[in-house]
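Figure caption, in words: inputs first, then the predicted bound structure.
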Amino acid sequence: MNQSKTDISTNINWEEIRAQFPVLNQEVNGKRLVYLDNGASSQMPQVVVDRINKYHSHEHANVHRGIHSLSQHATDAYEATREKVRRLINARYQEEIIYTTGTTDSINLVANSYGRKFFKEGDEIIVSEMEHHANIVPWQLVGEQTGAKLRVIPMNENGELEMERFYELLSEKTKFVSVIHVSNALGTINPVKEIIDAAHERNIPVLVDGAQAVPHSKVDVQELDTDFYAFSAHKMCGPTGFGILYGKKELLDSIPPYRGGGDMIDKVTFQKTTWNDLPHKFEAGTPPIAAGIGLGTGIDFLNSIGMENIAAREAELVAYATKKLSKIEGLRIVGTSHEKASVISFLLDGIHPTDAGTILDKEGIAVRTGHHCAQPVMDHFNIPGTLRASISFYNNEDDIDRLVDGIEYTKEFFA
Ligand code: PMP
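Bound structure (4'-deoxy-4'-aminopyridoxal-5'-phosphate present):
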């Protein structure tokens, strides 16, 4: 393979981009690290690490409160991320961008604020069989409080949603639809636009879990016309502890706050409290300021490459990996949808995923093993879990070749 791969059509030198990720430049267990667990968390480029350090070293103060310069400076830097996120996903207004601690928090916010206000006994919430637990359990919790029940869109053996079953599930009882955009366990890209349009014909709001979509492709919330959209900073070159909930302004205005405390109020008395305007109504307490600023720099970094270029490079790497892995005897890919993004889940004949993952780790190769927080997916395929290689634009063909060699070695080890 060509180590200094430059994409001729875009003039992007992918090896130069890779070199900006300090974590990748190290040995693990005496071997050069091959990091293929980007679906769990992506790495941060040096500019993001530096930006967070700069904040902690020179700029730290609490936001939204102080009249002093340092606090105002911190507030400006922290708030600047909101506009960057708005542009990234093409939201109409900055007030539609709610800061959360991640996808899980974003979904819990909607389940609690929207669900507790509007759901009642006999109502139904539609999710799919390939949801991450973060898009199942919050709805079950609110269901226990309100009497609403989950209905599930099944998937076929390729790991694609059975859309005709979705249309059958839609009924007078359906009060909400919440679906995953790109499956973290299978890589399937779901037809979320079709789902949103069908739900809207019945005036049913839709939340899309975009944790695995925003880092890998251009997402446009206005084009999708989604009501809510959730994602996490740490999967898109940003830090942990920070995430986004996009919501349409009129819907966010119609639901109560999720958490109470500082920042989210207008006026507090012991008799009655009124709420702050959007987006602060949903942002109680001191937030993870450094992480918010870091996400802003992460978005700048992604934009400097271009989301279309990122998507194209990752598609190239996924195609390369799929071709190479498919040739390995005894390897079965789980999730063979026609529309797939940067995740390849697989099994090795007669070798438990955890055992294989342990040997790969000894070879310096980081892959995920287990149920990937999607136990219903594993139940569907009647398997305990999979090995999962999740690819980012900063991976290269050499990483894939090392994975292939590592798998061959693992097979020999257990033979
Ligand atoms: N949804 C999907 C599709 C995910 O991949 C993840 C993270 N694995 C989550 C939700 C949860 O994200 P977080 O842990 O950042 O809240």
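The longest helix spans residues 69-89.
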